[in-house]
Design brief:
HEAT_SCC3-SA, single chain, mainly alpha, disordered C terminus, flat, two-stranded antiparallel sheet, disordered N terminus, cell division, 53 helices, nucleus, 0% strand, Cohesin_Scc3/SA
Length: 1207
């Protein structure tokens, strides 16, 4: 051992080989150690023993794992054993760390005494069971989580209990640190993880000891100064001597602690914070954050902060998350901001960019950290930085949006001068001082240019700005108050935005859950949340019962504002009307709604009025009768007006003027909107609507808007009649009457498909699809056989008309429109809207195919457009294909081949019989066939018959028409075989032979001998059927393989081969499937021995016997097993950098960097101690230190790792 005077600079290690010095306790002899063993946990020869009768645990690992004893008592027992025999106690501690790594090996006393740490670790590595997978510190389950907690607590309590004596004996800590350093450099990840976690917790405990020493030093120094400043007569020299001695002892202890921390930091942290395993890196960053917060005088400086800054660029989210949380703990304390100033300037951009991190948890913590930086210093963030966070309030991920809302609240919506705002509110007569803040919210919403996302903005701010968002009185006052001279009034756009925000806050308060698109659904509210929801609902109801009629009266001419305001009643607690005797306010609301209905014909406004009436007419409320009377009066007036205007319009016929048309259209729009939510069958609107439609068909001059509305209103009337019939016990006359109505309406809609006006045709098409779906065979399911008279099945004529409509109005090119509309945002929006409309048309028709209302072959005309219109309708067509295959695999396969045949015929018509097989059109058909083949999936047994049928139809189509020039020329459709070959890979080996035999029936002898280019499709198709027999062996036998269990013997791991189907079973499957072929077509026979296919390769294939094939399968399975088993090797490179440990990114920087605790506040400079390399003043004063050890503290490059970009 080294002299005590040099202990501050010595290299640390396990001092097990040297003779003890004079100031050390002599080691006990082996005979003495036997006494210690008897008093401690039972051991024999240094190896822990278990009680045979299942008694108490006897090893330190078992005690900590069970956690039955308090860590204090466990540590005290260990200290007692250490005092008796420190070698055996340390051996128990060493085995504790080894066993915590999941290693089954044990260090014995002779190994501990006679072997170096590297040799011990090598021995333990050899005994490490790589197949066990048992690693206590990362195993799931509550027991192992508790074990990890106990593990960390044990180390902390151990240092705390040993801090006054044992840790300074230059034996225990040297041994532990040396062992952990060696383990942390192991290639076994479990050793590295365990030792790193232990070392970091050890370092944290030592930092706490150092902090206590610093406090004791400061106290001792103050006592010494106070005693020395006394007059000579009162000064106690003995006390001064004691204080000096105590100060010297504390200083020596501090030097020793510094030396220990240097060893851990330089030997473990600087290597492991870049470890290949993310969890190890996360441990290092988490603990360095604890050191900086716990002992900021020593650790909160740029020399340590740089590690956190560099690791912000880590590629694993969990490590970045630890960095952000460590920084949050520092930025929470405003007193630490001066020390973080340089770090903030250097890494602020990175932190702000992390608010867009792909890991949502990281993004949330980054936003919270930016919020803390904002709280600490308003000037730290630029406007651009803030704007990067602002837009996240519209994020679909709610935690990100809420964190951004907190930032926005701190930045914009915190009151800067509450007294002035309250004075202004009193001056204006407002009850709330939040007027300016609400104005600020409106301005922010408008400037964000995402007006349709008001609900998202409100939800983001709900947790942080709830008091502001629930200030409905202030919002109403801003909307209703008259402008005052000198104060800026709300513009029309601002009023619309404020109304929209108000409605969103009302919805959020009443429903108490996020808007659609945020969150995973409605969660169960707690009792407190439920009470808050009820209180908020009562509060908003009581306020808006009185305020809403006034708001509607003021804005009744503005359709957008009125449509938003009319959403408010659906969130009312309607019992308040009767309980609070507020019927007069209900009458005022109904009056305003009536005025709105009479004044507007916009669909949004009318639907909002209809919905409001529907809510107010709920039978559960006592106000229902009052509202029903008002609604009936309104409907009576509108139906009378409608009947009168229809008569006038039909009488005038072609001479009708604009006023006649407007009267019919306006009334019909109102009635249609109400018929959607209300049963108006007693007013018999269908009759007049049908008259209008028939007149339009006969005369051909009906305005398109009237026709569209009449179609929609008639549709609603039919649905309400169906509802009445299904809910009651209908008579035969009722069924006949409804059938007559439906039949006549379907005929009218069919006639409207040929209308010159596109909106009329589209409306008729959608209603036809809906009604055919509703009145299909599905109607009588569920025990409703009595409704059989109402079932309608479309005839072939109607099916063809529907299909032609889809082809004419859905699959259209818009290149010309795209060029004319380019660059215009409004036109872009119109194009998107038109695409949505076409998608709805296609989906409506595909739904008829899926539910077997329209014959499946009609889908061929849809499927053939899959590639060309993939971006627009690919998802709809693919889903239709999937659903039809589930209905009938064989018919679906026939439909697929039919679609390819249609495309091929179209190509023949365009190019003639001499096709250019290299053209893009042919390639497009082949690519479509390839896509269709992929949809059959990997299970060839399930799709066997369907694929075989597809080939049969394809072969028949290819040879359907002979070439008029003679038999020596190829059939006209022969090139289709090249398309058909795309499906050959989906045939199993047996079926390939069967299909080839079927193909030969259509071939003459001369065909098989032809080799000209025009015969290449036939040659290619034949080759696709004749090849792949051996390769398909594994798929035919459901993944057969040879017995590979003996090839590779991994301890405790089962072989990876699959079970092989027995020969008898395979033969049975083969015969049964081929039998189905025979039944489907008796002319299709299983061929005999096939002729050897001609080889197209320049390398001749040798005949491979069955044994050779089986060997290849066995070798493949073996190699696959190796790759699976070695996917996560237990041994690996332990550094993230490929340059290796010797080329550390800051090797020179770290080798010279040591931990030096700062001088105590009242302590004089120490002459013989190292300079304080982390003290900026010392660095500036000592130029040599600055050049030798660290770059200048104020240099930005101080944070950049030499030779390696932190990204």
């Amino acid at each position: 051992m080294e002299d005590p005077e040099a202990k501050g600079k010595k290299k640390r290690g396990r001092p097990g080989k040297q003779a003890p010095t004079s100031n050390k306790k002599p080691r006990k002899s082996p005979t003495d150690k036997a006494v210690g063993v008897a008093r401690g946990r039972g051991k024999a020869n240094g190896v822990a023993q278990h009680n045979g009768d299942g008694g108490d645990p006897v090893t330190l690992f078992e005690v900590v794992k069970l956690g039955k004893s308090a860590m204090q008592s466990v540590v005290d027992e260990w200290i007692e054993s250490y005092k008796q025999d420190r070698d055996l106690a340390l051996l128990d501690l060493i085995n504790f760390f080894i066993q915590c790594s999941g290693c089954k090996g044990t260090v014995r006393i002779e190994m501990f005494r006679n072997m170096q740490n590297a040799e011990i670790i090598r021995k333990m590595t050899e005994e490490f069971d790589e197949d066990s997978g048992d690693y206590p510190l990362t195993m799931p389950g509550p027991m192992w989580k508790k074990f990890r907690y106990n593990f960390c607590e044990f180390i902390s309590v151990l240092i705390r209990q040993c801090q006054y004596s044992i840790i300074y004996d230059e034996y225990m800590m040297d041994t532990v640190i040396s062992l952990l350093t060696g383990l942390s450099d192991s290639q076994v990840r479990a050793f590295r993880h365990t030792s790193t976690l232990a070392a970091m917790k050890l370092m944290t405990a030592l930092v706490n000891v150092a902090l206590n020493l610093s406090i004791h030093q400061d106290n001792t120094q103050r006592q010494y100064e106070a005693e020395r400043n006394k007059i000579a007569g009162k000064r106690a020299n003995e006390k001064l001597e004691l204080l000096l001695q105590k100060r010297k002892e504390l200083q020596e202890n501090q030097d020793e602690i510094e030396n220990m921390m240097n060893s851990i930091f330089k030997g473990i942290f600087v290597h492991r914070y870049r470890d290949a395993i993310a969890e190890i890196r996360a441990i290092c960053i988490e603990e360095i954050g604890v050191w900086m917060k716990m002992y900021s005088d020593a650790f909160l400086n740029d020399s340590y902060l740089k590690y956190v800054g560099w690791t912000l660029h880590d590629r694993q989210g969990e490590v970045r998350l630890k960095c952000l949380k460590a920084l949050q703990n520092l930025y929470t304390n405003r007193e630490l901001f001066p020390k973080l100033e340089l770090f903030t300037n250097r890494f602020k951009d990175r932190i702000v960019s992390m608010t867009l991190d792909k890991e949502y948890d990281v993004a949330v913590e980054a936003i919270r950290l930016v919020t803390l930086i904002l709280q600490g210093s308003e000037d730290a963030l630029s406007n651009e930085d803030c704007e990067n966070v602002y837009h996240l309030v519209y994020s679909a991920h709610r935690p990100v949006a809420v964190a951004a809302g907190e930032f926005l609240h701190r930045k914009l919506f915190s009151r800067h001068d509450p007294q002035a705002e309250e004075a202004l509110a009193k001056r204006r007569g407002r009850s709330s001082p939040n007027g300016n803040l609400i104005r600020m919210l409106v301005l922010f919403f408008l400037e964000s240019e995402l007006h349709e996302h008001a609900a998202y903005l409100v939800d983001s701010l709900w947790e942080s700005s709830q008091e502001l968002l629930k200030d409905w009185e202030c919002m109403t006052e801003l909307l209703l108050e008259e402008p005052v001279q000198g104060e800026e009034v709300l513009s029309d756009r601002q009023e619309s935005a404020l109304i929209e925000l108000t409605v969103c806050t009302i919805r959020q308060a009443a429903e108490a859950h996020p808007p659609v698109g945020r969150g995973t659904g409605k969660r169960v509210l707690t009792a407190k949340e439920r009470k808050t929801q009820i209180d908020d609902k009562n509060k908003l109801t009581e306020h808006f019962i009185m305020a809403l009629p006034m708001l509607l009266s003021k804005y009744q001419a503005d359709s957008e504002k009125v449509a938003n305001l009319l959403q408010i009643p659906q969130y009312f607690d309607l019992d308040v009307y009767s309980a609070g005797r507020m019927e007069k306010h209900l009458d005022a609301l109904l009056k305003q709604i009536r005025l709105v209905v009479e004044k507007h014909i916009e669909t949004d406004v009318l639907e909002a009025c209809s919905k409001t009436y529907s809510i107010l007419c709920s039978e559960e409320y006592t106000i229902m009768n009052r509202v029903d009377i008002a609604r009936s009066q309104l409907i009576d007036e509108m139906t009378d007006r409608f009947a009168h205007s229809v008569e006038e319009l039909l009488q005038e016929a072609e001479e009708a003027d604009d006023d006649d048309i407007y009267n019919v259209l306006s009334t019909l729009k109102r009635l249609t909107a109400f018929h959607n939510a209300h049963d108006l069958t007693r007013w018999d609107l269908f009759g007049n609507c049908y008259r209008l439609l028939k007149a339009g068909i006969e005369q051909g001059s009906m305005p398109e808007q009237i026709a569209v509305q009449a179609l929609q209103c008639s549709h609603y009337s039919i649905l309400w009649q169906l509802v009445k019939i299904t809910e009651g016990a209908p008579s035969k006359d009722d069924l006949v009457a409804l059938r007559r109505v439906v039949k006549s309406f379907l005929a009218v809609c069919q006639q409207c498909l040929s209308n010159v006006n596109t909106p009329v045709k589209e409306q008729a098409f959608m209603l036809l699809c809906d009604l055919l779906m509703i009145f299909s065979h599905q109607l009588i399911s569920g025990g409703r056989e009595g409704l059989q008279p109402l079932v309608f099945n479309p005839d072939s004529t109607l099916q063809n008309e529907l299909l032609n409509f889809v082809l004419d109005h859905v699959f259209i090119d818009q290149d010309d429109e795209s060029q004319s509309m380019e660059g215009d945002e409004e036109d872009e929006a119109n194009k998107i809207e038109a695409l949505h409309k076409r998608r709805n048309l296609l989906a409506a028709f595909c739904k008829l195919i899926i539910y077997d209302i329209v014959d499946m072959p009609a889908a061929a005309d849809i499927f053939k457009h899959y590639m060309k219109y993939y971006n627009d309708y690919g998802d709809i067509i693919k889903e239709t294909l999937s659903k039809t295959r589930q209905t009938d695999k064989i018919l679906c396969a026939k439909t697929l081949i039919l679609s390819l045949q249609q495309l091929f015929n179209e190509l023949l018509q365009d190019q003639g019989p001499n096709l250019d097989r290299t053209s893009s059109h042919v390639s497009g058909i082949k690519e479509l066939a390839r896509r269709f083949a992929l949809t059959f999936g990997l299970d060839q047994i399930k799709t066997r018959e369907a694929v075989a049928t597809l080939h049969k139809d394809g072969i028949e189509f290819a040879f359907k028409y002979q070439n008029p020039r003679g038999p020596e020329f190829p059939p006209i459709n022969l090139a289709f075989l090249e398309v058909l070959s795309e499906f050959s890979s989906k045939l199993i080996r047996q079926d390939k032979k069967t299909v080839h035999s079927y193909l030969e029936k259509f071939m003459s002898e001369s065909m098989s001998e032809r080799r000209e280019d025009v015969w290449l499709p036939l040659i290619s198709y034949r080759n696709s059927l004749l090849t792949g027999g051996d390769e398909d062996h594994m798929s035919v036998t459901s993944g057969s393989s040879s017995k590979t269990g003996s090839v590779r013997s991994k301890k405790g791991r089962p072989p990876l081969h699959k079970k092989r189907i027995e020969g008898e079973q395979s033969t049975e499957i083969k015969s049964s499937v081929e039998g189905s072929w025979m039944m489907r077509n008796d002319t299709l026979q299983t061929p005999g021995a096939l002729q050897t296919p001609q080889l197209t390769s320049t390398v001749l294939r040798e005949n491979r016997p069955a044994e050779h094939i089986e060997f290849i399968c066995m070798l493949y399975t073996y190699m696959r097993g190796l790759m699976e088993d070695d996917a996560e090797p237990i041994f690996e490179d332990v550094m993230m950098s490929s340059r290796g440990q010797l080329e550390d990114m800051n090797e020179e920087f770290e080798d010279t960097m040591v931990i030096d605790l700062p001088p105590s506040r009242n302590r004089r400079e120490r002459a013989e101690l190292r300079p304080d390399f982390f003290d900026s003043a010392a660095m500036i004063e000592d130029e040599s230190v600055s050049k030798t050890f660290l770059p200048p503290l104020l240099s930005v490059s101080h944070f950049d790792p030499p030779g390696l970009n932190p990204t």
